[in-house]
Every structure is written in structure tokens, then in C-alpha cells.
């Protein structure tokens, strides 16, 4: 346990670190990649360029300091980060260099304000928090490797088939090259790919949600091709998968991971997705119908139009086949053909009025996935409707973030 003096110093200086969190995050990664360039094989370089990784680190450091005496408050964040660490293969021996670099970044940014006493206190706090991560991750590694069909590290899978789901989304059906059993997973979890792309200096690691119900002899991921848009460059891995990977090609994946999972109790279930956020929620929907769960399920999907709408016919078929499934489609930019066909329910965006018109009552478990602005809007609407926080679950396709909290 930490001594009282250390706790007081960390908690009193946490707001200062928050104020300078972006600069600390930026300096941290500059130093880290100088000290340990091999870590460039692990970190998402696109997120680095966009500043997302730095922002996530700054938040995590501040939050850890603020809640140092009650890490249970940060349990969702710790579990989410630990799942990702297990998926990409972070080991205990990598923590010390990260700690040293973090303290150096704080000192570089804060200058004389970061006294030896402050740096020493944060060093103790980092050791305390990293021990919590290491212990949790050790259990995750053991559980993953010991489960039926489980494995350590990365395993070779071949592409059994590719299926185009929309103008932007393609599904990849994956089977193990060794022909042995594969680990099961929970609806909502993801696979992690280690892509070695010709011409790229470093390997690229990405998480892709499993888009099918568990229990098959294959895994399915459905990947959106990320084209250059604004300050976002082309997606290196998504374009590689779409344009260069063909049937029978081999790819490396770690075992399924993730804490965004279906918790099927007696309440109705509302699945709300935006764009490619449909993938983990589709896994949940398929699981519910395959397991013949009695819950009423409402599947709400928002996308630009029918050209970008993946799995539309599949969801419509499930709605026709199962009395407890209802779907709702929202297009923000419907085509003229869409308007003529009237193949969607609402033009525009999902808001509180939409939700209240779709759902008979708010007593339900809500599962959300999509862009950060999309989910922030949905969470804001659910908060206005006074839906309890424990009934709101979400997945974010970016470095760890906690939405709806300031």
C-alpha cells in the first residue's frame, strides 16, 4: 500500500498533470520510441499521428492519480486496458521502461514545478498501479492459454473466404492453419491482428470485432476500408486487407479479447450502432437468436445510406424470422434511390425523440458502438432519459476512452 504522504502529493498534483496532459503524452511517446524503438511495432501509428494515443495516456495518468486510493472506481478502464495489453502481448518486463519514461516526460514538461518529492511520489504510484495491471494480465494470459482451443501469442489463420458486405465493408472468414480447435469467445469481443505489410518498417497491430456468434469452426471479422478523410490518413491495415489479402492467404491473430460483452439478463436489449460499429452488435444479435433468448431485442443502426449499410438484409431476415427482434434504420444522407424505395425509417440522426418513439420503455440494457461523437450523442440522450449508467455499455474503436464523464 502507498503511504499517506505519497497519496497526498499524487492527489494534489493530479490536476496539474491533467492541465498539461497533452504535452506530457506527446513528450512521453517521443522519449519512449527513442529508448525502445521496437515498441513502434505495437503502437498504432495512425493514432499517434492524430494525437489520440497521447490524449488517452494523459487521461489515464490524471485519473490514476485522482483515484489512487480507490482503484475500483477505475475498474472499467483497468479491465479494458488489460484486455488490450493481453491481446497485443504486453509483458511485465515492459512496465519499468514505461514508468521511467513517464516520469521523465512529466519532469520535462513541468520543469522545476516537478520537484524530486513529486517525481518520487508519482514513481511509487506508478509502481502500485502497474502491479495491479501485471497481476490482472497474468490471470488473463493463463485463462486465455488454458481454455479449450486457446493459444499463446499469435497464431496463423488463413482466409477461407472474403465477402463484400457494402461499398466499404468486407468480411474475412478465418480458419486456423494448424487445423486444430479454436477458442470460443463472448459476443462483443474482438480479434487482434499483427500485420506484416510489405514496404512497412514496423508491424501493425489492430483490433477487429468478431461479427459472428461464437461456436463456429471459424472466426469472422468485418473490416471497413478507411480512406483518407480530413486529418485522417488511409487506414494502413484496412486497405492492406481489402486490396491485397485474398482467399487462402495467412494472417496472424491473438486469441479473442475484450470486456464489451453481452450480459444477457431478463431485461430487454437495445443494440445501437453507427457505421462499422455494427460488427460487435451483430455478433450479439446473432448470439441472442441462436441461443433462443427470450429477451425483446431492438436493433438500431445509423449510417450514411444503403451503399454503406452492411448486413442490412441479414438483420431484416432475423426481424422477419424472430418475433422478439425489431430493427430500425437511420440514414443521414440517403440516396435518391433510398428515398424512392423508402428503405429506411428515419433521415437524420438518432436522438432522444427517436429513441422514445422506437422504444416502449427505457428499462433495458443498452449496448452502443460507433464513432466517439456518435456515442457521445447517444449517451447524452440516454442520460437525459435518466437511463441508469449501469445499463449503458459501449465499445470505442480508438485508444481507451471513458465517455460522458468530465
TrEMBL record:
This is Flavohemoprotein. In the C-terminal section; belongs to the flavoprotein pyridine nucleotide cytochrome reductase family. Belongs to the globin family. Two-domain flavohemoproteins subfamily. Its cofactor is FAD; heme b. The active site is at 95 (charge relay system), 137 (charge relay system). Its EC number is 1.14.12.17. PANTHER family: FLAVOHEMOPROTEIN. Residues 149-406 are annotated as: Reductase. It holds the Pfam family Globin. The record marks 84, 395 as: Influences the redox potential of the prosthetic heme and FAD groups. It comes from the Bacteria. FAD binds at residue 190.
Amino acid at each position: 500500500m502507498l503511504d499517506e504522504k505519497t497519496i497526498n502529493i499524487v492527489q494534489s498534483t493530479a490536476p496539474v498533470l491533467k492541465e498539461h496532459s497533452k504535452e506530457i503524452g506527446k513528450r512521453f511517446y517521443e522519449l519512449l520510441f527513442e529508448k525502445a524503438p521496437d515498441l513502434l511495432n505495437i503502437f498504432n501509428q495512425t493514432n499517434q499521428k492524430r494525437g489520440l494515443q497521447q490524449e488517452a495516456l494523459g487521461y489515464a495518468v490524471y485519473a490514476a492519480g485522482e483515484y489512487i486510493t480507490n482503484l475500483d472506481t477505475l475498474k472499467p478502464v483497468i479491465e479494458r486496458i488489460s484486455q488490450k495489453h493481453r491481446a497485443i502481448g504486453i509483458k511485465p518486463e515492459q512496465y519499468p521502461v514505461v514508468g521511467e519514461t513517464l516520469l521523465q516526460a512529466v519532469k520535462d514538461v513541468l520543469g522545476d514545478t516537478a520537484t524530486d518529492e513529486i517525481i518520487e511520489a508519482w514513481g511509487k504510484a506508478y509502481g502500485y498501479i502497474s502491479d495491479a495491471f501485471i497481476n490482472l494480465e497474468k490471470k488473463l494470459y493463463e485463462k486465455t492459454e488454458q481454455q479449450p482451443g486457446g493459444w499463446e501469442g499469435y497464431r496463423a489463420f488463413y482466409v477461407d473466404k472474403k465477402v463484400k458486405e457494402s461499398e466499404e465493408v468486407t468480411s474475412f472468414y478465418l480458419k486456423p492453419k494448424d487445423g486444430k480447435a479454436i477458442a470460443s469467445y463472448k459476443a462483443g469481443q474482438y480479434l487482434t491482428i499483427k500485420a506484416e505489410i510489405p514496404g512497412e518498417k514496423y508491424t501493425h497491430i489492430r483490433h477487429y470485432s468478431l461479427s459472428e456468434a461464437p461456436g463456429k469452426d471459424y472466426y469472422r471479422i468485418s473490416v471497413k476500408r478507411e480512406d483518407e478523410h480530413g486529418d485522417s490518413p488511409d487506414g494502413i491495415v484496412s486497405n492492406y486487407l481489402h486490396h491485397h489479402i485474398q482467399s487462402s492467404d495467412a494472417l496472424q491473430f491473438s486469441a479473442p479479447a475484450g470486456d464489451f460483452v453481452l450480459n444477457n439478463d431478463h431485461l430487454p436489449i437495445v443494440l445501437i450502432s453507427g457505421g462499422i460499429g455494427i460488427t460487435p452488435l451483430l455478433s450479439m444479435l446473432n448470439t441472442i437468436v441462436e441461443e433462443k433468448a427470450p429477451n425483446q431485442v431492438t436493433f438500431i443502426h445509423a449510417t450514411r445510406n444503403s451503399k454503406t449499410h452492411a448486413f442490412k438484409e441479414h438483420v431484416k431476415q432475423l426481424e422477419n424470422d424472430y418475433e422478439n427482434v425489431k430493427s430500425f434504420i437511420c440514414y443521414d444522407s440517403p440516396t435518391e434511390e433510398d428515398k424512392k424505395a423508402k428503405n429506411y425509417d428515419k433521415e437524420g440522426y438518432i436522438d432522444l425523440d427517436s429513441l422514445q418513439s422506437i422504444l416502449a420503455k427505457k428499462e433495458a440494457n443498452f449496448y452502443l458502438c460507433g464513432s466517439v461523437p456518435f456515442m457521445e450523442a447517444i449517451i447524452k440522450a440516454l442520460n437525459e432519459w435518466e437511463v441508469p449508467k449501469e445499463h449503458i455499455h459501449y465499445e470505442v474503436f480508438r485508444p481507451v476512452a471513458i465517455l460522458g464523464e468530465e
